[in-house]
Write a structure and sequence with these properties.
It is built from 20 helices and 36 strands. The chain is α+β, with helices and mostly antiparallel strands. The chain folds into four domains: 234 residues, no CATH class; 91 residues, Immunoglobulin-like; 99 residues, no CATH class; 123 residues, Jelly Rolls (Sandwich), CATH 2.60.120. Strands 17, 18, 19, 20, 21, 22, 23, 24 and 25 form a nine-stranded mixed sheet that branches. It is globular and about 85 Å long.
């Protein structure tokens, strides 16, 4: 029998915690896998640089946010008056709490890094209010999600209590109609862990144990099959949160829960080293793998490490763009098919945030410089591009499409997932520069900074204009008395790197990507590493003729004009009989900038991608030989013109089977199944099943265009528009391998939207995309 925890049970638990809390807080489970650890950010001070600018802008944004507004729904859930109104955007759309969790983590990072008293006071106030809210709930619950029931918005706690009773329903992107409530729960849980471990705030541990206990009793009362049903919906890194709770307390209950919260449908294939990621929501999967990585560290289970390493290698080598980001419209496609997905909706920032977290775990197990080559690529080329350093606002998708521009959040009306992870990402620029093992200090990132590590005897300064310049200087101010090893990362792209000590050249023979120097260091020693910033090209995975240009660590992009003007041209191409690099001519006096002749006339200017905050860009150029260009020119121009015309015609587009598009288009269906086939997501209707969604349109005549798979023929579906019959779809053969579209004219109306209903009458109906077009 499943028991619902009462207020008395919760208070009894709190009393036990009051007696044992200090001991629990000091417990640390032995890490069985880690060979290197990051030097804590509190020992590192950022010097002026783009990274310091990003951290400063982020601090201003953290302070601008009112924790009482982030807690608005938490107050109302507990029956307390809310002191301040709820924020807009996602915070007002059923998912309140995810931003709070990231804010807690970001503030904790700042406190751990700088000891910032103003941030610490704001964090403490939030935790005090959360304690008041949790006490009012009486059972450990601490949430702010809401759900729509009967046309009304109600407290999302109802979902958790339904699940406790075994009533579990999900269409893949919801849990009992609530928008990913376990994902949001994880964010708050993780934020409290960070407030405890990083900010050392004594309020955090009782809160996180109460919260962990509430959800833990739900999971403990369910069968494994029921737990797997819950895990079909996006649930963040809930397994990691319970693993970390075990690490903090030593209580095996939390470890058992962490192991049970293992989504077998995704993690079993990865453990078997199988890439079955195509069509999956990317950022749903990465946190699950981070949780496995953490469990490997705590249990030593080699299977968890196998899955984490395979996933990381698969994503970075077969699913990632030049800037290190991955996914299109938040989803993985088939491996090595990224050239088919160079779009406006590539590289969700949350994915890179989580891939950096996973990279840190793998590096700790085996300090390999190549892992930080990837880390640096993402941090420089995606994360610095993701935040405007003047306003501190964030980008959700980083467009790879020719002519793409960045769309930034607003201070109080966005609160996308990438705003939350952005708050954390730009509080982390000091936390991975230096790493340490038992006998080595690693310098992994070339970020201007000062290191003061008295426990190891190190005090040094790192000065550089990197990434714009390749010279890095380490000045030793204090060093251990005994001979000690410094390991400087030599990036894989840095051919011909040189190293001097006090101005005198010393041999440079990298081992596993590091220049390793062991000696008795003295105050006044100065090392200078010089990395030649040479130009190179890199093909997109799966297509050797779609190229990105890189200069040193920087991804370059074609500058296609100001973001506030439309781009109506053809994406840049490159015609070269030999090495494409020979066609790029340096612009004198401009670091990392080049000109390339455009085969359609004029020139293409390549510049570092990340600072092009207000420009339209193209990261990839299609490479042709003169012979191939002569044959392909007309088709290349026509294809670009067709894509531009489709963009001009399109009023609205809806990608079925994808979480955010379904929410944006008021998708509803009692039983339809979300699926991933043919490299895309979609929705399946069995005979008798129906779905509905809403699309924007224009008042005059409009076209509804639906995308099907060409082999799905001889199936009957009834289509209605605004409650009136529109068409009966009866596509006959022959079957074709590929996507096909069918246009249905919509009658003129005075409305700016139209509601589409589809009902399968005979055979399965599979839909991938619906869009409205101007005639």
């Amino acid at each position: 029998m499943t028991l619902t925890p009462t207020r008395r049970h919760f208070l009894a638990g709190a009393s036990i915690l009051a007696l044992t809390g200090p001991a629990l807080a000091q417990t640390k489970v032995q890490d069985r896998a880690t060979r290197a650890e990051p030097v804590p950010a509190r020992n590192v001070t950022l010097k002026p640089s783009p990274f310091a600018d990003a951290a400063a802008a982020n601090r201003r944004y953290l302070l601008s946010l009112d924790p009482e507004r982030l807690l608005h729904n938490f107050y109302t859930s507990a029956g307390l008056p809310a002191p301040a109104p709820v924020y807009g955007g996602w915070e007002a759309a059923g998912i309140a709490g995810h931003s709070l969790g990231h804010w807690l983590s970001a503030c904790s990072l700042v406190v751990a890094d700088t000891g910032d008293r103003e941030i610490a006071a704001r964090l403490d106030h939030a935790l005090a209010e959360m304690a008041r809210i949790q006490a009012a709930q009486g059972d450990g619950y601490l949430g702010g999600t809401t759900v729509e029931r009967g046309g009304k918005t109600v407290d999302g706690k109802i979902v958790f209590e339904e699940v406790r009773r075994g009533d579990i329903r999900t269409g893949g992107f919801d849990l009992n109609g609530g928008w990913v409530p376990v994902y949001t729960w994880h964010k708050v849980h993780a934020g409290l862990i960070d407030a405890h471990r990083l900010a050392n705030n004594p309020r955090a541990l009782p809160l996180l144990l109460g919260l962990a206990g509430y959800f833990g009793t739900i999971i403990e009362g369910l069968s494994d099959d029921q737990v797997q049903q819950i895990l079909r919906a996006e649930h963040g890194g809930i397994n990691e949160a319970y693993a970390d709770t075990y690490a903090i307390t030593g209580n095996p209950r939390w470890l058992r829960l962490a192991e049970r919260l293992r989504h077998k449908a995704v993690l079993d294939p990865l453990t078997a080293r199988q890439d079955k990621l195509a069509g999956l929501h990317a950022n749903t999967q990465i946190p699950k793998v981070i949780g496995l990585a953490r469990l490997h560290e705590l249990t030593g289970n080699p299977a968890h490490a196998t899955a984490a390493r395979f996933f990381h290698a698969t994503v970075t080598q077969h699913h990632s763009y030049a800037i290190g980001g991955n996914s299109d419209r938040e989803h993985f496609g088939p491996p090595d098919h990224l050239a088919d997905a160079i779009a406006e909706t590539t590289c969700e920032a949350c994915n890179s945030y989580n891939m950096l977290k996973l990279t840190r775990h793998l590096y700790g197990w085996a300090p390999e410089a190549a892992l930080f080559d990837y880390y640096e690529r993402v941090q420089l080329n995606h994360m610095l591009a993701h935040q405007r350093p003047d306003t501190g606002m964030f980008v959700y998708f980083m467009p790879m499409a020719a002519g793409g521009r960045r769309s930034y959040s607003t201070p109080e009306e966005s609160f996308w997932c990438c705003v939350g992870s952005g708050m954390e990402s730009h509080a982390k620029h000091a936390d991975s520069i230096y790493w340490q093992s038992a006998d080595t200090l690693f310098v992994n990132l070339f970020i201007p900074s000062a290191l003061d590590l008295p426990a190891r005897g190190w005090k040094l300064a790192l000065d550089t204009a990197y990434p714009m310049d390749g010279q890095i200087t380490l000045s030793i101010e204090n060093a251990p008395r005994a001979a000690s090893e410094l390991a400087l990362r030599i990036p894989g792209w840095a051919q011909g790197a040189t190293l001097t000590l006090k101005g005198k050249p010393i041999p440079l023979t990298p081992a596993a990507g590091y220049a390793r120097l062991k000696r008795r260091w003295k105050a006044g020693d100065r090392l200078t590493l010089t990395l030649p910033m040479t130009l190179r090209t890199e093909a997109i995975p799966g297509d050797p003729d779609t190229l990105a240009f890189l200069s040193g660590p920087l991804v370059l992009a074609a500058d296609l004009g100001p973001a506030d003007r439309p781009f109506e041209g053809v994406g840049p191409a490159l015609v070269a009989a030999g090495n494409p690099i020979q066609e790029a001519k340096p612009i004198l006096g401009a670091m990392h900038q080049y000109r390339i002749a455009d085969p359609l006339g004029g020139e293409t200017t390549l510049k570092p991608f990340y600072p092009l905050y207000d420009r339209r860009t193209a990261v990839y150029l299609k490479h042709f030989t003169p012979e191939r260009w002569a044959k392909a020119r007309d088709a290349y121009v026509a294809d670009a013109a067709a894509r531009a015309e489709l963009a001009r015609q399109t009023i609205d587009v809806f990608y079925l089977g994808e979480m955010q598009p379904e929410r944006d288009h008021a998708f509803q269906s009692a039983k339809s199944e979300a699926f991933q086939l043919n490299g895309r997501s979609g929705r399946k209707l069995l005979p008798g099943q129906s779905m509905q969604f809403r699309l924007a349109r224009e008042p005059g005549a409009t076209i509804l265009r639906v995308t099907y798979w060409g082999a799905d023929i001889d199936r009957v579906a009834a289509i209605q528009a605004d409650g009136k019959p529109l068409a009966t779809e009866r596509r006959a053969g022959p079957a074709t391998q590929g996507f096909v579209t069918v246009d249905y004219p919509l009658p003129a109306t005075g409305s700016a939207t139209t509601q589409i209903n589809l009902r399968a009458e005979r055979g399965e109906t599979l839909l991938y995309e619906a869009r409205t077009l101007r005639p």
